[in-house]
Design a protein that fits this description.
The protein has helices at residues 2-15, 18-40, 51-76, 80-88, 93-109, 128-139, 142-171. 8% of the residues are buried. It is 72% helix and 0% strand.
Length: 182
């Protein structure tokens, strides 16, 4: 039952555009809250919900589906011989997953972490690019605004690259030194 629900969820989230999911979140959450308010006598104010919450919900649900597929594919990419070798030396299923499968799978899965934030602009949440466009339109200084934006994006990308590099290094068991027990 859980497997079928997760398959349905992943199929829906991957089979519909993120923009549609944003609108479903933006218009659907207030409808659900109104139903809950009516059914349980609650008094949640639908009007007080910030637009960013809808973006977080839609992006989180969407990204979870894509990451689930990415992680599944990464786990399936682990060589069957490595798994059998772990079993042959007496590792349990959990030990094999923790010590053999996940370290190799994470190297494959890590690069799929970021995307799609500019779509939030469509329901009123302004990302950095949208804000830059508004500021540049107000003062007609497009070049200066976009240079400033580039100088904001660049350090963020450097930090993200650093973190991803550290994660890849941590999970790459092939580059680790073999530790000997004396």
């Amino acid at each position: 039952m859980l497997s079928q629900l997760s398959t349905l969820y992943i199929s829906f989230m991957r089979g519909t555009p993120l923009l549609v999911q944003l609108f479903l979140s933006y218009y659907g959450i207030p409808v659900m809250l109104n139903i809950l308010n009516y059914k349980f006598g609650w008094e949640f104010s639908v009007n007080d919900i910030p637009s960013m919450l809808f973006v977080f919900v839609a992006f989180s649900l969407n990204e979870a589906a894509y990451m689930a597929e990415s992680i599944r594919a990464a786990i399936l990419s682990v060589d069957r011989k490595d798994i059998e070798a772990a079993w042959s030396i007496g590792m349990t299923g959990g030990q094999t997953m923790r010590r053999v499968i996940l370290p190799q799978a994470m190297i494959v899965a890590i690069p799929n972490l970021l995307k799609s934030t500019s779509l939030a602009f469509t329901i009123g949440v302004m990302d950095m690019m949208g804000k830059a466009k508004v500021v540049a339109g107000n003062n007609m200084r497009y070049f200066e605004v976009y240079i400033g934006l580039a100088l904001l994006y660049w350090p963020m990308c450097i930090i993200i690259e650093f973190i991803v590099h550290k994660l890849e290094k941590r999970f790459n068991i092939l580059d680790r030194e073999v530790q000997q027990n004396d």
